[in-house]
Amino acid sequence: MKVFSLITGILLLAAGTPSPGAESLDQAWQAALSADRQLQSARSLEQAAEQNLAAARAERRPRVTLSTSATRLDSAPAFSFGDAFRSPPLFDDDLLLMGGAQLQLPLFTGGAIASAIASAQSSHAAGKAGVQSARQDLRLAVVQAYVNVLRARSAVAVADSNVASLEAQTRDAENQFEFGSVPRNDYLAAAVSLADARQRQLQAANQLELAHAAYNRQLQRDLSSPVDLAADLPDPLQGVSLDSLDSLIATALDHRSELQALSARRQALAARSRAERARLRPQVGLTGGYSRLETQVLDDDGFWMIGVGVNWSLFDGGRIRSRASALESQAAAVGHSEADLRSRIALQVRSARLNLDESSARVVVASKAVEQSEENLRVSRDRYLAGSGTSTEVLDAEALRARSMNNRDNAHFDEILARFRLARALGVL
Fold first, then answer.
1. 363 assigned to some structural domain
2. In terms of DSSP bridges, do strands 95-108 and 302-311 run parallel, antiparallel, or are they unpaired?
3. CA–CA separation, 23 vs 227, rounded Å?
4. What is the CATH number of the domain that holds 295?
């Protein structure tokens, strides 16, 4: 952590101090989380699963329906008892009016409703895990775009430093040539190296503009929007012990939302299978209602009723059992995917940890190389100005310095990304 902070400070000085209004990573995350369409899609799916859960729970409640109808007949019907007697018309004006209300309440469903609720609960849990997974993927994508801007910005700073150094060397070589101390090719070699450095400077500036555009796209902004980012980043592994690889893998298996989503999906399919099989058991329900018929014959045209109904499917040709078995097979398939994901998560954690170790070691080596290259350049210049060294030595020393600075910066940014990728692999980002 001390090396991490030290290199961050060095890069801040190299790339320039950001303005007070520079955007932080937390601000970038908030902007992306509020605008990303993939995350909004995952949230919509979670809301749909929540509404399905509410609908499943509502199956336990009574259901009340109202009905009414008006039918015009070509002639009003009447009772006929032969030639001796014919009743008055049953309905007035050949119009049949009917209305009623009915209440239905399930009393026993063989566990169908309970299983359907359990399935909906698991689907809702899978939806929540999907949102969490999408959220962490988005945060990592923002980090990568953010760090790419910082990396490109540091590359521009190195390119500017390289150009400034070679400009000084070109002036020295020109002065030495004018005094007759060195041959003309010393000046020409320095000028060619300077021209090459200026090309790399242009390329670095172009890469920075591309990094800005990619960052803006990640945050759903106009690609040409100005970008000013703070160079200091939070440590995503704060409070995480990196001593034991086994403990890191265990943490990942406990926290990875993708694994939780698969587990919830498997449970949802198993519950749907149980709900399907419950249809083979008797279905008992309470029915009550009131009906009214406008008639001129009956002395009481309103009727109350209450009853208990039983529906039992004794034979359906195997339809229910086949559907239940299909759901069980789907649950088993998800279970196999879940086991495979556990193995892949373990590999991801191991790879991320090894990459972090490698990049951290590179930071130490590259930082030392920068110190040595700067000293080598100083000595080479002193020797050249004293007449005991060559221009080639100075140009080679400057090339080594620029390369070592790029190596140091890349190692540092690789370490930052490695820490965030490990946090993502652990499911704690």
1. yes
2. unpaired
3. 8
4. 1.20.1600.10
Rounded-to-integer distance, Cα 194 and Cα 187, Å: 10
- Domain range for 363 is 2-73+88-426
For residue 143, pLDDT over 60 is answered with: yes
* pLDDT of 152 strictly over 90: yes
* Residue 80 belongs to some domain of the structure: no
**What distance, in Å, lies between the first and last C-alpha atoms of the chain?**
18
Nearest-angstrom CA–CA distance, 208 and 226: 12
Can you tell me the distance from the alpha carbon of 306 to that of 290, in angstroms, rounded to the nearest whole number? 9
Tokens 């990303």: give the residue: 36
Q: What is the mean pLDDT of residues 26-47?
A: 89
Question: Residue holding tokens 């930082």?
Answer: 367
Residue type, 175: N
State the DSSP string of 69-80: EEEE-SS----B
Maximal CA-CA distance, the chain: 148
> In the chain, how many domains are there?
1
Indicate the pTM of the whole model.
0.81
219 CB contacts (<8 Å, ≥6 apart)?
A: 28, 31, 32, 35, 142
Virtual torsion, Cα 300, 302, 307, 313, nearest 10 deg: 110
Judge contact between 410 and 151, C-beta under 8 A: yes
pLDDT tens profile 360-410:
999 999 999 999 999 999 999 888 888 888 888 889 999 999 999 999 999
Residue 67 inside a domain? The answer is yes
Q: Which two tokens stand for residue 357?
A: 């170790």
For residue 83, tell me if it sits in a domain: no
Q: Residue 222: which residues within 8 A CB-CB, separation 6 or more?
A: 216
Helices 2-15 and 319-386, interaxial angle, to 10°? 60
